[in-house]
Amino acid sequence: MPVPLAQDAREPASLADREGFDEQFLGLPLPIPDLADVETILLPYTHFSVLLRPDKRLAAVTALGIDGAKLLELDRSGISWRLDPRVLEHQQTGEAVYARNDIDRGHLVRRASAVWGSTEAEAGQANRDTFYYTNAAPQAADFNQGMDLWLGLESYLLDHATDYSRRLVVFTGTIFGSKDPVYRGVQIPLQFFKVAAFIQDGRLAATGYIVDQTPQLAELPDVPKPGAREEAPPLGPFRTFQVPIRDIAALTGLDLAQVEAADRMPAAAELPTARVATTWRLLGAPEDLDLDFDLER
Question: How many angstroms separate the CA atoms of 80 and 25, rounded?
Answer without folding.
Answer: 29
